[in-house]
Amino acid sequence: MQEDYQLSPDQADLQTRKKIHQAVLENSRWFGDGPPIMDEKFNAAQTDERRELFLEILRRAARQESNVGLSRAYTALADKLEFCGYEKCGSSACPTCRRAYQRTSSAAQTGIIHQVSKLLHGKELVFVTIIPVDYCFPC
After folding, report:
1. Which residue range(s) make up the domain with 52?
2. Mean pLDDT of the region 110-138
3. Is 26 exposed, middle or buried (0-12, 13-18, 19+ CB in 10 A)?
4. How many separate domains does the chain show?
5. Is residue 2 part of a domain?
6. Using an 8 Å Cβ cutoff, are 71 and 62 in contact?
7. What pLDDT is recorded for position 95?
């Protein structure tokens, strides 16, 4: 007797996230300077410059690190980020890919806000960010 295998909610969520992640990486729109515009200082060219700066920092850290494991980790991350210009790496440590994810998230959130505001016509929308006390740091 063969049972139908179904994914747990966590597994299904992970698969959905992977599909979204891949869709972002494959769409050049998120890596350009079109809408949504995050900030003038957060454009594609400046983000690529930031990625180059990260590369320099990681390579320097790898050379100076006495712990071989950490040195290799720095080098591996630098290698991954270095080739992001040719094939998107998808790393959250990469300024280029992180910016694309942020732009995607911003566009999705804006769309949802517009949909909700139409449903609640005439009502005021209020948004709150909750930060646990353990994650609060003085400026």
Report:
1. 9-135
2. 84
3. exposed
4. 1
5. no
6. yes
7. 92
In a domain, 4, yes or no: no
**Lookup result for tokens 């049972």:** 3
Q: Pull the structure tokens for residue 14.
A: 């992970």
Which residue do the tokens 């179904």 mark? Answer: 6
d(CA 59, CA 41): 25
Map residue 57 onto helix, strand or coil: helix
Chain centroid, CA 10 distance in Å:
20
Question: Which residue carries 């804006």 as its tokens?
Answer: 110
CA-CA distance, 75 to 61, in Å (whole number)? Answer: 9
- Greater model confidence, 42 or 66: 66
Residue 41 lies in a domain: yes
In a domain, 109, yes or no: yes
pLDDT band at 7 (very low <50, low <70, confident <90, very high): low
Tokens of 127: 């948004």
Q: How many CA atoms lie within 13 A of 73 on its CB side?
A: 7
